[in-house]
Each structure stands twice: as structure tokens, then as C-alpha cells.
């Protein structure tokens, strides 16, 4: 299968080269880095380390992902792998994440940090409890059991197109998992390792980021559930 990697970045000039150098090149056709309005040399570092770079000035994790997917659509892969640019994940574990898709056992794979080995303090307490709450609600509403909303994930291109992703910021990961559940896509989790990121998290590293992300995740959960109830009542 043809595998492409998509990495949204915002001021990751220190960590991004580490991420790009750790990706197993023999598994990947291309790496697309979406520069989400960086004020440092992230885009330059990405090019220096062999990535394709596209710009998305509208801030937001989802906005960056959507821009990268529009670029990929010109020559789509069989599988898209999403990966953060902060070096908190272990890119060398990519084969573990994509193998269930390659074998035909799943259409989407979530790399679960809670099932894998974590460096002490890597996953902040607010992220731990936020994941637990969101995953419990997803199981209650949709019957799909996840343990994490981890950003390290793989999905078949056709399945991703069917999800019709829309969220432009913090709700991207949970939207993907909710819509996969609603469509009955085959989804599995695999354990992935996790370490302290390089730099400060733009989400859980600040009070404002934590509050905004928590609100958007819960809003997305209930909005999608309300839509499903409306459609079911027609």
C-alpha cells in the first residue's frame, strides 16, 4: 500500500527534524508538513529534511489537517498516517500503527498512549482525564470502545473521505472517531509509546488551551450525537 504521513506544525523548528528523521522511510512515499502560521523556521527545517510543505495560515489543528488532505487528494495514498510534530510520539512505531490496515483487519487505527509505555509526566493529568471522559461518552453513545484520542493514527483514504471531516481546530481527533463509529468502520487501537514533548503544548500546556480543547471535544461529542438522533427520527 502507498502510505503518506501528514504532520501539522506550529513553531516546531526544534522538534520537527527529530520527527522527520525518525520516520521509517522505507514505509512511506511522502511526508506532508502543513505549516500552520509558524513564526520560526519550521517550514525551512521541514524542506531540509525531505518533507513536502504546504501553508495554512488559518490557525487550528483541523484546518491544517484539511489543508494537507486537499494537497494529498491530487495524488491520494492508500493510507494516511497522522503524526504530531512535537516529538512526543515515536515515529519509528509507524509500522505498528499501519499494519492492521495493511492486513485488512481495520480501516482505522488509533495509536493509544494509555495502552503503551509512557515517560513519567508525558501525558498531563488534564489530558488523561479528558481522554477518559471523552472515550466513556463515545462508548455510551455509540458503543465503540476507545482508550485514547491520540493524534498518532492511520486510516484508509477511502474511509477518510467517507467521514467528510469538517472540524478546524481541537475537535478533529474526536470527530474522526465519532464519525467512524457512526458509519460502523472497522477501528482498532494499538499501543504506542509516548514521551515529554519538545517545547510547551499549545493545548494542555496552558489553562486557556485546556479549557478550549475540553469544550470543543465535548461540544463535538454532543453535537454529533444530536445529529444522529435527528437523522434516526426521520
TrEMBL record:
Q: Which Pfam families match?
A: Glycos_transf_2
InterPro entries noted in UniProt: Glyco_trans_2-like (IPR001173), Glycosyltransferase_2 (IPR050256), Nucleotide-diphossugar_trans (IPR029044)
User: Out of the domains of life, which is the source?
Assistant: Bacteria
Q: Which Gene3D superfamilies match?
A: Spore Coat Polysaccharide Biosynthesis Protein SpsA, Chain A
* Domain (Glycosyltransferase 2-like) ranges: 5-119
Keywords linked to the UniProt accession: Transferase
Q: Establish whether keyword Transferase is in the entry.
A: yes
Any one Gene Ontology MF annotation carried by this entry is: transferase activity
PANTHER family named among the record's database cross-references: RFBJ PROTEIN, UNDECAPRENYL-PHOSPHATE 4-DEOXY-4-FORMAMIDO-L-ARABINOSE TRANSFERASE-RELATED
Provide the protein name. Answer: UDP-glucose--dolichyl-phosphate glucosyltransferase
